[in-house]
Amino acid sequence: MMYETWSPRRNRIAPPPYNNHRMTHGDRFGNNLTSTGNEFNRVPSFRNRAFNIPVNIERTPTASTRNSAGTSLPVNIERIPSTSRNRSFQPFVPVNIDRSPTASTPYSTEPFAPVNIDRSPTATSNNRTAEMSVPVNIERPLSSNISRGSGPAYSNSTPGLMNGSIGGPRERSVSFGRYRRSADEDEDDNDEDDVSSNRAKVSAIDILSEENSRQHHTEKYDVVQGGGLVVRRGQAFNLLLQFDRRFSLKKNTLRLVFKTGPNPKPGKGTHIQCLLQSERRSTSPSEWTAVLRSRHKENGVLVSVTPPADCIVAEWRLTVENIVSNSTKPRAFKFTLKESIFILFNPWCREDDVYFPDSNKLNEYVLNDSGVIFNGDANYIGQKPWFYGQFESGILEASLFCVQLGFDSQFGYAMSNPTRVSRIISKIVNFNQDNGVLVGNWSGDYSGGKSPSSWNGSVAILRQFVKTQRPVKWGQCFIFAGIVTTICRALGIPCRTISNFSSAHDTDGNIKIDIYVDSNRREVVPSNQPSESIWNFHCWNEVWMERRDLPSGYGGWQIIDATPQEESSGFNQCGPASLRAIKEGRCELLYDTLFVFAEVNADKVVWARGEGGKWSIVSVDPSAIGKKISTKVPDGLPVTGGGARIRDDITDEYKFPDASVRERLAVKKASRARDISAPYINENKVEDVRFHGFVDRNYVTLGQDFVFSFSFTNSGTETRTISAKMLCETVLYTGVRDRIVKQQSYQVPVSPKSNGEMTMEILASDYLHKINDNATFKVSMVAEVLETGQLVMWDDDFRLIKPNMEIEVSSSSVEVNKPFQCRLRFKNPLNAILRNCSISVDGPGIDGEFDQRISDVAARTEWVAEMTMTPRTAGRKQITVTFNSDLIDNVSGSADVLVSSSSHKHGHLFPCF
To answer: Which of 7, 103, 817, 874 is deepest in the core (most CB within 10 A)?
Structure first.
């Protein structure tokens, strides 16, 4: 037995957004500002971000600020001219602040750093979420373009252990991140208007994060753990407004202004103004409302805000304006909230297009941050534990970032439509045309990046994408699907990951997979025919929504697929396609319904070249495609790895039983949509020999020998001669044949009314150095009856069983911020040493996937290691571990850990590995 003890160090990813935000003086980017007299010292922190927009701040010569001695000093803030808005990444924009000939002040290196200037002896600000407005006429320019170099806060963090990127940064501008304007007032400094002096001014806003998040099912988001606010549209949330005096709606006109995007406009739904009302009045369903609910002590009022159920899903910023009108000009005392307000889709709201009728299942389809993706083949279904991590640090921001990129930073009503948003997600997750998140690779050569089988979750991939601003290497269909689930659940769209076994890739849209055999009885692809294939398995996603662009009744589950296969409207995107439309063969309905229909319901057609080079159909199999379509059982729980039933077979949701009348009618209906004729078979051929193939599937593990056989029966009255070729090849899961393991040829006479069998044994030594990371083989035979010309093709996929990674948790009682031990073990089944070994660990609280190189594993030995982990949040957690080596890949396991809360505050802490 090999035994190791090690503690994985956590990747030194920057602290999550919103941590340490609750400070008396602080800007929207998490930088501490300390003031002493007339000096403002910036303490740089992980949230420093560079903008390429010049500062445009101007003070009048009469403006003054008081130094520590109480005397006024002239303030001269010089505008820095800018002749162009360069899209290149610029680290600093200088600001020249000249206080006096005898006084100097360190200047900020960030253009939007708030300036906290107290001009009134009575003005104070103890609020942790915003700065008190004072009568200074300073208007900070809002960013109209933010270069893509300025991603979410953690994008400037220290690199972790993730590898691989491709391409260069985007040239286009991208507006994303934490918008902020300091509090101000549109008021003349010298105006002593009695009306304005009697107006109540906002001095603080409490976002009531804990209360709101609990009511909106958002308490798990790291943004909320750090004191931020995440709510769902169509549902009210509360704000506690604190005034400098008693507030009265009769004497004050209060307006709440919500903005999102770089250039907010009312006509695009990105600039919203709603007046505070004493009660909710009859309004349009698409209108925002703000209602005064109650009064609180110390001049506070509770305000209830309801964004409509079709508002844009985005990061919003809020300004509260107390409007003053007199005979000269209207003015507004403004107070800007520091924290952004994230507004998401709401599947709990009946008015939202993503409303899901069974709220219990939302514990899985929205709130479960871990799961499993099924793989392998229809005869032996494997499973890959996957950590979606939609609540982890920076993932909500990254998800919004991806959607914004998909819309090319064009903020507007399209970002409120789940049909449009889900289609954009299917496009932006792949790299092919839009420099998206992940680069696909099915070649088997994964140099320059990370092997697809070694990824355990979406978090590390999304963080690397945002940090580097470049697509991540490498991915395959199950990883694309895992990332889509993460993004959709983060945004509030119910989503599940789907695996389809024996999945067709129909490239010409004729709902047939055509297999060609030449005169030498070898499978070929004619030069004038497209290359089509049957994947062992293929993964995509289903998202739940109402489809207002389709006839009534075609809402519900919709298929989207981010794996780049075929183009749709000029991009590698697929869906959303109605699941009901697919089952019924309604392939004329949007989007890409015909392509998905063929994936689950195409016919397998075998063609053979005969005399004179003419191709003729040998066989048509209507049952070969679309088997055991699977997803995780919607129990809302992590995968325990203990053998519990976790696979939900949903094949009957996609198709009627194969070869049934209703299934054939659906195929005919789909064919009529494209004017496709049914394949024709010559029924006059003599076929008096029956064949049957068989593979020994008695759980053959990696390292064992196996046998496959082919039996035949002559039911005729004459002797027949069978010429056959048996072949075993390694195959990629996409159906592409890889390397020949073994082949044999036979010519056998068969007497009338008799039977026989041909067998081929495959030794471990035949395949050990030829297998790929899926350990999958295709065994096939082409047999011809020489006397009649009867031709039979048979093939089957066969997968060896890999060892499991066992994970044992040392204690049944695990608490937040307290270390606990995990023991990992698996047995090397081979008579060979495993070299180039590594372990990948993922789970809640691990900031990026953790990779650890380990020592070689001797032949036929058990490898054991101990790992120390420290959780930072409570609840049921799934730990996922994957082992990789030169001979065995993707040895995976998972464990379910119940973490209880402790007396320690855990919002700002990380696990210590």
So the answer is: 817
In this prediction, residues 321-339 reach a mean pLDDT of 81
Q: How far is CA 858 from CA 705, 826, 848, 861, 885, in A?
A: 21, 12, 30, 6, 12
Q: Do the domains spanning 359-609+623-655 and 689-799 agree at the CATH topology level?
A: no
Which residues form the catalytic set?
A: 477, 538, 561
Nearest-10 crossing angle of helices 593-601, 661-673: 140
- CA angle 697-699-705, nearest 5°? 75
CA 336 from centroid of its chain's CA atoms = 31
pLDDT score of 167 more than 80: no
Beta pairing, strands 556-560 & 533-545: antiparallel
CATH class held by domain 2-12+803-900: mainly beta
What is the SS3 assignment for 618-670?
Answer: EEEECCCCCEEEEEECCCCCCCCCCCCCCEEECHHHHCCCCCCHHHHHHHHHH
Q: What is the 3-state secondary structure (H, E, C) of 54-84?
A: CCCCCCCCCCEEECCCCCEEECEEECCCCCC
- Give the DSSP H/E element, type plus range, for residue 339: none
Q: What is the DSSP string of 802-851?
A: PPPPEEEES-S-EETT--EEEEEEEE--SSS-B-S-EEEEE-TT-SS-EE
* Residue 100: φ, ψ to 5°: -170, 165
Q: Cβ distance 345 to 399 under 8 Å?
A: no
* Domain regions of the chain by residue span: 2-12+803-900, 359-609+623-655, 689-799
Alpha carbon 528 to its chain centroid, in Å, reads: 39
What is the model's pLDDT at position 845?
63
Q: How far is CA 504 from CA 6, 168, 623, 625, in A?
A: 45, 34, 12, 6
Q: Return the CA Rg of the chain.
A: 32
Q: pLDDT tens digits, residue range 414-451?
A: 999 999 999 999 999 999 877 899 999 998 899 999 99
Higher pLDDT, 147 or 584: 584
Helix count (H) and strand count (E) of the chain? 13, 47
**Class of domain 359-609+623-655 (CATH, top level):** alpha beta
Closest CA to 539 of 423, 462, 629: 629
Q: Is 139 a residue whose pLDDT tops 50?
A: no
**Contact of 504 with 534, CB cutoff 8 Å:** yes
pTM for the predicted model, two decimal places: 0.78
Distance CA 592, CA 576 (A): 7
- 171 near 87, Cβ under 8 Å? yes
pLDDT at 913: 34
Res 616: pLDDT: 85
Q: Which of 712, 730, 732 is nearest to 780 (CA)?
A: 730
Q: What is the dihedral of CA 557, 563, 565, 566, to 10 degrees?
A: 50
Tokens of 116: 């906290």
Round to whole Å and give the CA distance between 608 and 618: 6
- pLDDT tens sequence across 84-119: 434 333 343 444 434 344 433 333 333 434 434 343
pLDDT band at 9 (very low <50, low <70, confident <90, very high): very low
Say if residues 155 and 383 touch (Cβ distance below 8 Å).
Answer: no
Residue-level pLDDT at 697: 61
3-class SS at 574?
coil
State the pLDDT at residue 464.
96
Place 772 in a pLDDT band, splitting at 50, 70 and 90.
confident
Mean pLDDT, range 653-660, rounded to an integer: 93
The CA distance from 21 to 35, in Å, is 17
Q: β-strands 891-900, 814-815: how paired?
A: parallel
Could you give the angle at the alpha carbon of 495 between the alpha carbons of 555 and 372, nearest 5°?
A: 140
pLDDT value of position 797:
86
CA–CA distance, 160 with 450 (Å, rounded to integer)? 13
Instruction: Provide CATH code, domain 689-799.
Output: 2.60.40.10
- Tell me which range, 480-494, 734-748, 803-817, is most confidently predicted by mean pLDDT: 480-494
